[in-house]
Amino acid sequence: MKGVRTREGTLEAGPEGGRIVVDEAAVIARVRAGEPEAYAELVRAHTSVALKAAVAFGAGADAEDVVQSAFLKAYQALGRFRDGAAFRPWLLRIVVNETRNTVRSAVRLRALAGREALLLGSEPLIPDSADPAVAAVAGERRTALLAALEELTEEQRQVVTCRYLLEMDEAETAEALGWPRGTVKSRLNRALTKLGRLIGGKGGEEHE
Question: With contact defined as beta carbons under 8 Å apart, do 81 and 73 qualify?
């Protein structure tokens, strides 16, 4: 899809479901130069992934409030934003912290329905034309995955969420969670091993 040229740079529909790509450095420079309304470009570009992150980390019905607060805090801290860094993982680190603050008194009451909505949000996992038997198996696998996620530690859930549900790379995950890349790698390995054991134990011959 063709990009649209704006004063801020190139704004276009990205390859993954219409993701907006904006020249972040140019927008941030304008905000710092005294044009706060330019910040709306960053808000539009990153609201979708910020909401997904808030839901995935357990914000539930408070996800919109969490994201609104995160964008406000990011705006207030923009003067400390490191030139040349990526805005998305920096923002998501704020979202993660805001979510923790919001749900810390009820962290074990995380809603499975919210995570299922996240997994189904971008596009159907099962085409309408799929064989009903195939759809049933896929549904069982999804249910097993959601249940298995609840058996992970908080840190393991976080790293799996970032790497696979939010499709962040290792460096972005490290930035968002505030961990060294080695910690991301080791916790992800342990999480995947545990998930494989949990899901494999329920799936029998489906274990790979």
Answer: no
Structure confidence by residue, pLDDT tens digits, 30-56: 999 999 999 999 999 999 999 999 999
Rg (C-alpha) for the chain, rounded Å, is: 19
Question: Tokens 């549904």 correspond to what residue?
Answer: 139
21: which residues sit within 8 A by CB, 6+ positions away?
A: 3, 10, 11, 12, 14, 45
- Tell whether the model's pLDDT for residue 184 goes beyond 60: yes
Distant-in-sequence contacts of 35-42, Cβ < 8 A, 24+ apart: 36/75, 38/8, 39/75, 39/78, 41/6, 41/8, 41/11, 42/87, 42/91
Q: Does pTM top 0.90 for this prediction?
A: no
Distance of alpha carbon 3 from alpha carbon 59, whole angstroms? 33
Q: Give the separation between CA 119 and CA 131, rounded to whole angstroms.
A: 20
CA 29 to chain centroid, in Å, comes to 26
- Give the separation between CA 52 and CA 165, rounded to whole angstroms: 8
Beta bridge partners of 10: 5
Under 8 Å between Cβ of 163 and 173: yes
Nearest to 81 by CA among 69, 94, 96: 94
Cβ contacts of 206 within 8 Å, gap of 6 or more: 141, 199, 200
Quote the distance between the C-alpha of residue 191 and its chain's center.
17
Within 10 A of 119 (CB to CB), how many other CB atoms are there? 15
